Amino acid sequence: MSGAEVLALNNIHKAFGGVVAIQDFSLNLKAGEVVALVGDNGAGKSTLIKIISGVYSPTSGDIELDGEKAGFRDASAAREKGIEVVYQDLALADQQPVYMNMFLGRELTKGPLNLLDKKRMRRETQELVDELDVRIPSASSTISNLSGGQRQGVAIARATHWASKLVLLDEPTAALGVAETARVEALIEQLKAKDLAILIISHSLDQVFRLSDRICVLRRGEQIGVRETAKTDKNEIVSMITGVA
Amino acid sequence: MTRLSSRLRGLDFQQAVVYFGFLAIFLFFAITLYDDGFLTQRNLTNIVLQTAPATIMAIGLVFALSAGEIDLSFGSIVAVSALSCAVALQSFPLPVGVLVGLGVGVAIGAFNGVLVAYLKLPSFLVTLATMGLFAGIARSMTNLRSIPVMNETFTGIFGSGKLFSVPSLVIWTVLGVGVGHLLYRHTRFGAHVLATGDNPRAAQVSGIKVPRVRLYVLMICGGCAGLAGLLYAGRLQAAKYTLGESDLMTVIAAVIVGGTALNGGKGSVVGALLGSLLMGMLNNGLILMNLKVSDQMIVRGLIILIAVAVSLRDSSR
């Protein structure tokens, strides 16, 4: 179940001015492992994702990637190290085709003029969505013509394509119906099988128990605890989230 | 065959409407104005020659709009560029004059761009202000006088000349559209322009340097306006502060009718060419119909209104 340690967060502390958003947070993530990050609104989950993906830098504490200290200057630096984020709003360009979104900011080019290699981008996108069984009409479909689940599928497929170490998922099924949620969960299982480390934020405890190996609870920026999913139950997690025993 | 049909299905209404509009208006004038010489080769060539500066401006505007920005100042840039070039040509050789004309355009575009991209001011307000600012500068530069352009090589290249019996303004149009289309559709820069206009946050988290894209599109707009200024100066063999003054509405209409979205993320350089030719055809036809200038303005305004409404109908869905 647990492979090599991919990411280590050591005593992460983040304050915005005088407001403490995260205090003394430590967590390890292993390859092929799904860790769920749960907590009430404002607990600091999204802030933590932004720290790992390089959008924010921690006020103190350090991040290790593959056992090496990694201080990401920005999101691009984290991406280059193989960390991908699936944002809650998906970060898709709606009026562009699927394949351009798949290669957004990393477009393939060819020839002396560095012209876009649309053919290859389309082909690779098609292969990827076929492999992950994301059912979209075609790699050339415009994003705005896709359903919520299909968009989510595209966003996750994009992360899978580029991530070599870690995928961060922020509420990946919040806006989806039952069937679509099941499809996305199946996708996440596939990522796990590919030996990626996965950190997922979810409000659905059912989902958390279905998908995760470990559960990490945050409350008002404080790390309440980490439990192995197999050795805990919903009651314990709920009381950890709310602070009511 | 299947490829063709899938292409047809992929063709969306907003992008296609310009083709039908173009054809409809062409046929209408061809029939009603047949005796007035609308269809003569000379008249049709004239339409292309007259719209060349507007087409070049329209190409620049496609980039700005696609990135979610707008440039209202390009008309004023045309005048300042043309005047700067004409003044430079009075004492310097041709390459200097050309570089000054284009350089002034790009520089004003960069000025707009820095304010928009790095000071985060809305491009609508910035370019509304610089439109007035540079219209004033154009007037004060030469005290409202027009400056003749005597350099015959210049007026040949940018105006009345021909290469292998193709008028130079046609060559500039083809060159502008070709380069513009290639940059827009087939380069990473073009893709980044579209992504920036479509969803700036998505573009930014994907590693696209959004402010730089915004700066560049406004510089392209300025550069295109500069080139349009040279074309006016070449064709009219003089530069005046009024150049480009009346092009704002026509060019914006041409670009919108050509399938470029006002709020970014979508557009077409070839569509802008057709839109521009459509506007030129309209001007030409209304003149041949012997309408009074005031009536021409009214009819043109109404037709643009209809055309824009039709081409935008789809996006409100």
TrEMBL record, chain A:
GO terms for molecular function: ATP binding. InterPro entries: AAA+_ATPase, ABC_carbohydrate_import_ATPase, ABC_transporter-like_ATP-bd, P-loop_NTPase. Residues 7-245 form the ABC transporter domain. Keywords: ATP-binding, Nucleotide-binding. This is Monosaccharide ABC transporter ATP-binding protein, CUT2 family. It comes from Shimia sagamensis.
Automatic annotation (TrEMBL), chain B:
The keyword Electron transport does not apply. It is a multi-pass membrane protein. It is found in: Cell membrane. The keyword Ubl conjugation does not apply. Coiled coil: none annotated. It comes from the Bacteria. InterPro entries: ABC_transp_permease. The chain crosses the membrane at residues 16-35, 47-66, 96-118, 124-142, 163-184, 215-234, 269-290. PANTHER family: ABC TRANSPORTER PERMEASE PROTEIN YPHD-RELATED-RELATED (PTHR32196). This is Monosaccharide ABC transporter membrane protein, CUT2 family. It comes from Shimia sagamensis. The lineage of its organism: Bacteria, Pseudomonadati, Pseudomonadota, Alphaproteobacteria, Rhodobacterales.
